[in-house]
Design goal:
4-stranded mixed sheet; 4 strands
Length: about 120
């Protein structure tokens, strides 16, 4: 299953999610992250092991050193561990989670309509 310290679970049929994974890989200079598509056996094991909310497929899920994060917190914490200036986005963690997640949920609800859906996982 690869590195168990930095795990990103994602929707492999979502074009936005696919692009996000390619983005993370591009700036993951230390190669810390493991990427696991929802629906895989590994994702099921992780979801079960960490007791992830049953609505997890509506969000990116980031497991960081044994702790689970979702939605905007997951996205921002992923940025914190990338190379370049991306960790500066951690300042957005100062915004209350309900406000950040309100905007995250709008994008998540509309991701297929705005960015499209793909048939196969191309991020691998």
């Amino acid at each position: 299953m690869g590195n168990l310290s930095y795990i990103v679970l994602f929707d492999s049929s979502c074009n936005l999610c696919q692009k996000s994974i390619r983005f993370i890989k591009r700036y993951d200079k230390r190669q810390r992250f493991s990427y696991i598509p929802f629906g895989s056996d590994d994702a099921s094991l992780i979801v079960s092991h960490y007791g992830v909310n049953r609505h997890y497929k509506e969000s990116v899920v980031f497991v960081l050193k044994g702790k689970v994060y979702t939605k905007s917190t997951a996205a921002l914490l992923i940025c914190c561990h990338l190379s370049g200036f991306w960790p500066i986005l951690s300042i957005l963690l100062l915004i209350p989670t309900p406000i950040r997640d309100f905007f995250y949920d709008i994008i998540a609800r509309n991701r297929y309509r705005w960015f499209g859906k793909c048939e196969s996982c191309v991020s691998e």
